[in-house]
Amino acid sequence: MNKNIIDNFSKLNRSLFFLPLVFLLIIVFFLYSQNALNVAQYVQIQKSYFILINSKLSQFPTLIYNLTQIGDALIFLSILTVFFINAPKMWEALISASLVSLILSRALKSIFSVPRPAEILDHHSFVIVGKTLKGFSSLPSGHSITIFTVLTVLLYALMPEKLPKKIFWTLLLFFIGITLISTRVGLGAHYPLDVITGSAIGYFCGLSGIFISRKYKIWNWIALKKYYPFFIALFLVCSIIIIIKIINENLIIFYFPLAGLIFSLFKITQEYVKK
User: Fold this and answer.
1) DSSP per position, 17-85
2) Nearest residue to 19 (alpha-carbon basis) of 128, 217, 152, 214
3) Does the keyword section mention Transcription regulation (predicted)?
4) What is the pTM of this model?
5) Cα 82 to Cα 84: distance, rounded to the nearest angstrom
6) How high is the pLDDT of residue 274?
């Protein structure tokens, strides 16, 4: 598997970066055409769409609240630890991409300082599922960035060879991504353009992680057995955190990353004791 991933990454061209950049430019042009390059108008032009989407998706509160947890890097990456032994190259890209996404998410939220829906809209005009999120960190959606960062790495790491399968794989991950980011609107946490912008930024971050891992050997040490005790300890800590989440909220979705971590702990321990 790792060799196929390396081969897949080696085929990628930097021209792929044009897609998210052009998409973001289209969003900027649209906002400019709507005179919405200011916070007040940015919120105003989306208000009716936000309320409509929120009203539809909030009819399934348990489902969207579970699905939105995948936008938490701890949850998503814990699920993917099942690939840690057999696909370290993918994990090199995931680590780099996650760091890029963290930096961009924090920086852009601070720069734009857009108020979340619950900060300025009447709470009776839309549905809030779960914790009421306020503050001025709506744009871009951090969960959406995380989701598309990880999905982009998965997209290219596990890309099939044959064209029909490539198309199916791409559409499948795109559908999963759109489904997951839409939950942020359903919960009443973000406006539509927050998650759309976040998805484009996430795609950029995912590509960045791939090209960083391809050019630099920053994380190649993670495949070395002598460092496995570090990851055993890390996975144990992550397992404890998720168990605490299960105790506090008992969401079904939390059992998937816990299962992934338990499986990974078994495999990595098994590999380590073989040396």
Assistant:
1) GHHHHHHHHHHHHHHHHTT--SHHHHHHTTHHHHHHHHHHHTTSHHHHHHHHGGGSHHHHHHHGGGGTT
2) 152
3) no
4) 0.95
5) 6
6) 81
Angle between helices 2-10 and 192-215 (to 10 degrees): 100
One DSSP character per residue, 181-227 reads HHHHHHTTS--HHHHHHHHHHHHHHHHHHHHHHHH--SSGGGGSGGG
How far is residue 6's CA from residue 98's CA, in Å, rounded to a whole number? Answer: 19
Name every residue whose Cβ is closer than 8 Å to that of residue 48 and which is 6 or more positions away in sequence: none
CB 153 within 8 A of CB 27: no
Give me the number of domains the chain comprises: 1
* 52 domain-assigned: yes
Q: Greatest CA separation found in the chain?
A: 64
| Residue 190, token pair as written in the block | 């973000």
- Tokens 């930097």 found at: 14
Q: Assess if residue 241 is contained within a domain.
A: no
Domain of 91 in residue numbering reads as: 2-223
Report which residue type is found at 169.
W
The answer to whether position 54 is within a domain reads: yes
Tens of pLDDT along 18-55?
Answer: 999 999 999 999 999 999 999 999 999 999 999 999 99
- Report residue 177 as tokens: 């991504």
- For the record, the structure tokens of 1 come out as 């598997």
Name which of 80, 84, 99, 81 is nearest 2 in CA terms.
84
Residue 275 has pLDDT above 70, yes or no: no
User: Nearest CA to 238 among 224, 249, 223, 254?
Assistant: 254
Distances (CA, A) of 161 to 20, 165, 166: 24, 7, 7
Q: Is 248 inside a domain boundary?
A: no
